[in-house]
Design brief:
The protein is about 0% helix and about 50% strand. By secondary structure, the chain is an all-beta fold. The strands form two sheets. Strands 2, 4, 5, 6, 9, 10 and 11 form a seven-stranded mixed sheet that branches. A four-stranded antiparallel sheet has the order 1-3-8-7, with no helix packed on it. A hairpin with a 6-residue loop joins strand 4 and strand 5. About 35% of the residues are buried. The model has no long low-confidence stretch (mean pLDDT about 95).
Length: about 120
């Protein structure tokens, strides 16, 4: 059974950092592109970052270098390191996977989705 499980969310103060994890089971990540998305209350889900099966990366322009995506195929896990967090980063963060070489920040590119993890940035 294909499954993606996000973890690492929580409450953090503005300027703080969090590292999200996306653990895969039922398949190996080596040949999959992985995307991170987020959805804030009342807003549409948007692409944050993605990593291709050959480790190419893409980031949303709005992030200004604050986030870093990486993968550890040995652990079957993809990470999203988030630094200099702002209240506008508050959202549920989702990871998604597709058996494809390139990645995309488009929602419809992906076949499998996790259940999400809440990130709240507030003082």
């Amino acid at each position: 059974q294909v499954q993606l499980v996000e973890s690492g969310g929580g409450l953090v103060q503005p300027g703080g950092s969090l590292r999200l994890s996306c653990a895969a089971s039922g398949f190996t990540l080596d040949d999959y592109a992985i995307g991170w998305f987020r959805q804030a209350p009342g807003k549409i889900r948007e692409g944050v970052s993605c990593i291709s099966s050959n480790d190419g990366t893409v980031y949303a322009d709005s992030l200004a270098g604050r986030f870093t995506i990486s993968r550890d195929n040995a652990k079957n896990t993809v990470y999203l390191q988030m630094n200099s967090l702002k209240p506008d980063d508050t959202a549920v963060y989702y990871c998604a996977a597709v058996p494809s070489w390139p990645c995309s920040l488009g929602l419809t590119w992906y076949d499998y989705w996790g259940q999400g993890t809440q990130v709240t940035v507030s003082s």
